[in-house]
Amino acid sequence: MQDTGMLYDYVPISERKPLRWPNGKRLALLITLNLEYWELTQDHDGPYFPGGPSINERLLPARIPDFNNHSWREYGHRVGIWRIYDIFDEAKVPASCTVNGILCERHPQIVKAAAKRGYELIAHNYIQTEFMINYRDDREKEKAVILRVLDLVEKTTGKRPKGWLSSSLRCTVNTSDICKELGLTYHCDYMNDEQPYLIKTAHGPLVSTPYTQEANDIGMFLRRNLTTDEAFGLWKDEFDELYRAGEKSGRMMSIGLHPHIIGRAFRARAIREFLDYAKKFDGVWWTTREEIADWYLQNHASHIAASRTA
C-alpha cells in the first residue's frame, strides 16, 4: 500500500549529483531562533498542555496558573532573546526566526527587533500549544491558521514569511500543499536530509529545508543533560563532518535554539563559541532558508534529475 503522506521521492544521497552551492561554498549554516508564546492558563479539562518540555513536569490542571513553568518560559521573552540578539550582533552573522503569530500581538518588540536586524522570519503556528494535526481532517481550518500567522507577521514587520515550521513539527499531509498554495517556497518540518529537495504538491514544487531535533537546545540540554562544553562539542562535531562532506557535495547544517534555554547565562557561551568557530571557515554560506529555496528551485535539476522530482 502506498503511503499517501510521502510527498517526495526516495532519492538516497548516493544517487544524487554533487550539490554545488553558490560561490563554491561547502556548507549552508542555518541557525534558528524560535520566537514562541505560551498562555498562563488553558480553558480545557486535564493538565496544561505546553507543546514542549516543562521545567517542572508535575503539571497543574490547565485552568490553574502555573507560574513555575510559565515564568521559566517567559524568561526567554524578558531576558534570553535579548542576550542572544547581542551575541549574534557581536558575531555579525544572521539568524532565522520562527514566529508564533500571537507573539506579534503580545510582545511585538521581540519580532520587530528580529526584523530590524534583517533576520529571516518563518511562520510557526499562531501559538506554540496549537498542533496542526488537530486540523488533519479540516484543510480549510488548517489553511486559515497558516494564513493568520502570515498576515500577523507581515502586519507587524512589513515582511511576509516565505516558509513554514509547524509547532513540534507536527504537520499534516495537507500542510505542504497549503504552503505552496499560499505562495510559500519552503517547508521545514521534514528532518530527513542534509540537502534540500523538492516536495511535490498539487500547486507545484516546494523546497524542503529541514529543521533539527538533534542539534537542538531542547534535546541537548533538557533531554540529554549536556553541559555547555558538551553542547559546543556536539555542534562542532556536526559542523566538522558536514564541512568535510561538503567538499564533494554541499551540505546544510541546522541548529535550533529557544531563548528560555540557550538564553540562560550559563548556557549562552556555547552558541557564542560555536559562532566564533564557524566564522573561521571560508566555505560557510551564512544564509537563510528563503535564499536556499529560491536558489534550489532554479538549480534542482543539476542535483536530482527532474524525472525524479516531477
Structural summary, described in words:
- The model has no long low-confidence stretch (mean pLDDT 95).
- This protein has eleven helices and nine strands.
- The chain is globular, with a radius of gyration of 19 Å.
- With 310 residues, it is α/β, with parallel strands linked by helices.
- The strands form two sheets. Strands 1, 2, 3, 8 and 9 form a five-stranded parallel β-sheet that branches. Strands 4-5-7-6 form a four-stranded mixed β-sheet, with helices on both faces.
- The longest helix has 25 residues, at 67-91.
- Helix 1 (67-91) runs parallel beside helix 9 (268-278) and helix 7 (228-245) packs parallel to helix 9.
- The chain has helices at 67-91, 101-106, 108-116, 139-157, 175-181, 217-223, 228-245, 259-262, 268-278, 289-299, 306-309; strands at 27-35, 96-99, 120-123, 163-164, 186-187, 197-199, 206-208, 251-257, 284-286.
- It has one domain: TIM Barrel, CATH 3.20.20.
Relevant terms:
310 residues, TIM Barrel, 9 strands, alpha/beta, four-stranded mixed sheet
Topology (SSEs and partners):
Elements: E1 27-35, H1 67-91, E2 96-99, H2 101-106, H3 108-116, E3 120-123, H4 139-157, E4 163-164, H5 175-181, E5 186-187, E6 197-199, E7 206-208, H6 217-223, H7 228-245, E8 251-257, H8 259-262, H9 268-278, E9 284-286, H10 289-299, H11 306-309
Parallel strand pairs: 1-2, 1-8, 1-9, 2-3, 4-5, 5-7
Antiparallel strand pairs: 6-7
Helix pairs in contact: 1-9, 7-9
